[in-house]
Amino acid sequence: MPVAVLLTVMTLGMLAACNPFAPALDESPGGDASLVTDQTTVDGLFQNFRYAYTFRDTTIYGGLLAHDFTFTYRDYERRVDESWGRDEEMRITWHLFQNASSLNLVWNNIVGFSGDSLRSSVTRSFNLTVTFNPNDVVRVDGRVSLDLRRTAATAPWKITQWKDESNY
Fold first, then answer.
1. What is the pTM of this model?
2. Closest Cα to residue 107, out of 44, 36, 65, 31?
3. Rounded to an integer, what distance in angstroms lies between the CA atom of residue 142 and that of residue 52?
4. 151/119 Cα distance (integer angstroms)
5. Where are the domains of the chain?
């Protein structure tokens, strides 16, 4: 009889400590924190780029860009190349992140790669779906050429030049 009472008290004690309406935090490494990488690999840079777009995170996005970053695209109507720097890129991206209800960026295979441990050039195609609302969805299939730089082999990669090679 005393064993049954002891087991009942222990069981009630364990049930009282378990609240199904307030579950414990999941601190396993599979959470969102594992989605952001340290950018010491080119793949890590592209993962962080995708994360920044998916979660519309300008802090992560800003960490991708070097202080002397330049974006360049072709204005086909005027037949000229247009460029802007990091500050303008951050402003434009902030507006995109604020106005889109969702962004889905898919990086496809790398079609060109050259460089060494401190400087690299990567050409890669992508698919981007920007949903502003259910009736306003923009799909872009394009290609980028990124120049990357880092200060040491263990430092994070940063984008110094982004050339949009898309034809739209």
1. 0.78
2. 44
3. 18
4. 9
5. 36-164
Specify the long-range contacts of residues 68-72, CB closer than 8 Å, at least 24 apart.
68/160, 69/158, 69/159, 69/160, 69/161, 69/162, 70/160, 70/161, 70/162, 71/162, 71/164, 72/161, 72/162, 72/163, 72/164
Two structure tokens written together for 133: 């609302």
Over the stretch 59-109, which tens digit does the pLDDT of each residue have? 999 999 999 999 999 999 999 999 999 999 999 999 999 999 999 999 999
CATH of the domain spanning 36-164, picked from 3.40.50.1360, 3.10.450.50, 3.30.540.10, 3.40.30.10: 3.10.450.50
CB 69 within 8 A of CB 93: no
The whole-angstrom separation of Cα 126 and Cα 107 is: 5
* CA angle, 124 then 127 then 130, to 5°: 135
Please report where in the chains the tokens 């969102």 appear, as a residue: 32
Question: Can you give the length of the chain in residues?
Answer: 168
What is the DSSP-derived secondary structure letter of residue 22?
S
